[in-house]
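Q: May I have one protein plus its fold?
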Amino acid sequence: MIKPSICIIGPGVVGQATGKVFVAKGIKVGFLGRTKEKVEILKKEGYNAFTKDELLDGNYDFDITIFTVPTPTVKGKIDLIVLKQASADLGKRLKYSKKYHLVVVKSTVPPGTIEDLVIPTIEKYSGRKVGKDFGACMNPEYLRAETAYEDSLNPWIILIGEYDKKSGDMLELVYKDKFDCPIYRCELKEAEMQKYVHNLYNALKITFFNEMREIGKEIDADTEKMFKLVAISAEGMWNPKYGIRDRGPFDGSCLPKDTQAFFHWAEASGFDASLLRTVIDVNNKLISKLGLHEFGFESKNIL
């Protein structure tokens, strides 16, 4: 089967890392960007690159478009204006195309964005229908800024959220036999949310240890030594399945009593344990929602 050609719209850190790795894997790639200077640099490096004002007259001949445009948070709310404009521009380009096209979003977006914004916008400006004339996928990136190219070259997971099987099959063809990692497939909204859960967990873990570090400093504890030991002793640190199954609130003989006991001690000592308070509150709300009694419900395996 002929390898599909790809256009990366939004050649920033993620877009360039993604596209350059595809090129290294033997895939035909073009970059399309808003910044003329960035496009010129890519051209000087030997890549096919275009400005947003090009490829508008029926000569957009790529099989797959991957959006890696910015989706910034402005005043606490995600701003999707760039993605919406990019979707409209792509729709105008696809208006002249007669072949099936796959639209892929790599940008981090809230659940429902592809179905509620990207697809309708492309349909509006192209006159084409999703599922018939074009497909759609969510393909989250997990790159670290400092090692973006290396992470793109050596991914530890590839996730494909698909509008339908045809969409997922086409994107999987791009990755299959080119990367040494598992490929998973799911629904669009699941892939969109998975990326947020991925980042939110990292943020939560950092915040938890920062809170414990601040309390540890107050009692002159060597927190670095202590945390290294926690990484060894706490099952939640080394068992990837710990806590992710739907087994309800945490319970048992240790977790409920120890969370409250430590919080009471920290509060009585004048230390800030805001995150721990939230942990207790969320757990108790779930207990109430399920009609259970605090500390009185039947113990279950937390896994």
Remarks:
- The longest helix spans residues 188-218.
- Strands lie at 6-9, 29-33, 48-51, 64-67, 73-74, 77-78, 101-105, 134-138, 158-162, 183-187.
- The mean pLDDT is 93.
- The first strand starts at residue 6 and ends at 9.
